[in-house]
Design brief:
By secondary structure, the protein is of the alpha+beta class. Helices cover 38% and strands 16% of the residues. It contains six helices and four strands; from the N terminus they run H-H-H-E-E-E-H-E-H-H. It has a four-stranded mixed sheet. The chain is globular, with a radius of gyration of 17 Å.
């Protein structure tokens, strides 16, 4: 009923969430580990490098089982198909009584060509993971038939300090002499899909509607 516009990262966030969630579903149907499945269907060597780097630094092993109440997730994308490559592995905790999910740990690998400022790039990916966690688990603009009803930050659902991941690692694959690739929002899509895949791994239930609120997760668990 009201005019809408593009979100940050334009369509990349929602598209990568959808595509990389479906990649995990395909891997499950094929009876294959999600990382192995992606590598099997990817020829781009730079894409393969970030996937392998993130998996290695996370300690990902085919067939591994997360502790009870937790799940592991993985996702990869090249931002807008032209810019930086990013892969993210995550560990998530899900409270089955309340449905509340929290990302505990995220390990990212990024390739944006030649790196000029590695600290700024690391900060960019860390920020992308935190921001995407907020979008994915909490944020939703409310509206009625006439206007937006989300009117202040006091009531708007957003990630709080007690839900920030305990640990975020960013591993940079530098490419001296290679063209610079935009990395401004390369992490948001993979972070969302990795989080969703980890929740599915923890609960055995696939959620496809954002945000992945505690009540949606709880409803899926109880269904």
């Amino acid at each position: 009923p009201i005019r809408i516009s593009a979100m940050r990262a334009l369509g990349a966030y929602h598209n990568v969430f959808s595509i990389e969630s479906f990649m995990d579903e395909l891997a499950d149907l094929a009876g294959t580990d999600p990382v192995e499945f992606r590598l099997k269907h990817l020829e781009d060597p730079r894409g393969r490098d970030v996937i392998e780097k993130a998996a290695e630094q996370f300690g990902w092993h085919a067939g591994q089982q997360a502790p009870q109440g937790r799940g592991y997730g993985f996702a990869f994308a090249r931002y807008k198909n032209l810019a930086a490559y990013c892969a993210i592995a995550s560990e998530v905790e899900v409270n089955r009584e309340t449905g509340r999910a929290r990302m505990l740990r995220a390990v990212a690998a990024v390739d944006c060509g030649q790196v000029v400022n590695p600290d700024a790039l690391t900060n960019q990916i860390e920020g992308a993971i935190v921001q995407s966690s907020s979008w994915t688990l909490y944020e939703r603009v409310s509206f009625d038939e006439r206007r937006i009803t989300s009117i202040d930050w006091q009531t708007y659902p957003i990630l709080r300090f007690d839900a920030v991941p305990e640990k975020i690692e960013v591993h940079i694959i530098d490419r001296p002499g290679k063209p610079f690739l935009g990395s401004g929002e390369t992490g948001q899509g993979p972070a969302a899909a990795s989080l969703a895949n980890a929740i599915a791994n923890a609960t055995g239930k696939r959620l496809r509607d954002l945000p992945l609120t505690h009540w949606r997760i709880k409803d899926a668990i109880d269904a």
